[in-house]
Amino acid sequence: MTARRSGSDRDAEFTEYVASRGGWLRKVAYLLCADWHRADDLVQESITKLYAHWSRAGRVENRDGYARRVLVNTFLAEQRTAWWRRTSVGADGREVVLPAADLDASLDVRRALTGLPPRQRAAVVLRYYCDLTVEQAAEELGCSTGTVKSQTSRGLDALRQSLTPRAAAERNRA
């Protein structure tokens, strides 16, 4: 017979998890939406959902995967709302700069990611930032492996086109 955890134990475990993984969730959210303030909102909404289902999260083998799936689903659900289609969120210029080997390239990739449709962006982020297999990404996105492959391929093609020197020169002239 298994003993049930008390509410305070559950809350302490949840608080510890969020404290240790909140920064990582925020980075994933930023890569999905390309806005730090919106990323904070996505993480907050995801953490709220995660808390409501913390007992379920405690039973899964990969808690990070569960949290990431909640985050990606929250992002994709937001993209489908009428509010999001009517609202344009612009950059406010106060981006947090993280150290990178090549900051210019990092910023170019982030900018190019914002040009991808939400499902392509989610597929690319899950495959290459979160380092998931095709099967894991398909499970996260709730689609087939073929869909993940096609969305990732189209997303990478669009990123390559966007990041070529010719495309960059054309953007600078405009």
**Intertermini distance:** 69 Å
CATH class of the largest domain: Mainly Alpha
| Percent in strands | under 5%
H/E element order: HHHHHHHHHH
Percent helix: over 70%
Radius of gyration: 18 Å
User: Unreliable stretches, pLDDT < 50, 5 or more residues?
Assistant: 93-98
Could you report the average pLDDT, rounded to the nearest whole number? 83
Count of discrete domains: 2
User: What kind of sheet is the major sheet?
Assistant: none
CATH architecture of the largest domain: Orthogonal Bundle
Structural class: mainly alpha
- Number of E strands: 0
Shape descriptor reads: globular
How many H/I helices?
10
Fold-level CATH name of the largest domain: Rna Polymerase Sigma Factor, Chain: A
Briefly say what this structure is.
The chain is mostly helical and 174 residues long.
What does this structure look like?
With 174 residues, this protein is mainly alpha-helical. It has two domains: 10-86, Rna Polymerase Sigma Factor, Chain: A, CATH 1.10.1740; 101-174, Orthogonal Bundle (Arc Repressor Mutant, subunit A), CATH 1.10.10.10. It is 75% helix and 0% strand. The protein has ten helices and no strands. Helix 1 (7-33) packs antiparallel against helix 2. Mean pLDDT is 83; it is low at 93-98.
List the helices and strands and how they pair.
Layout: H1 7-33, H2 36-52, H3 54-57, H4 63-79, H5 82-86, H6 103-114, H7 118-129, H8 134-141, H9 145-163, H10 165-173
Helix pairs in contact: 1-2, 1-4, 1-7, 2-4, 6-9, 7-8, 7-9, 8-9
Quickly list its features:
174 residues, mainly alpha, Rna Polymerase Sigma Factor, Chain: A, Arc Repressor Mutant, subunit A, 10 helices, 75% helix, globular
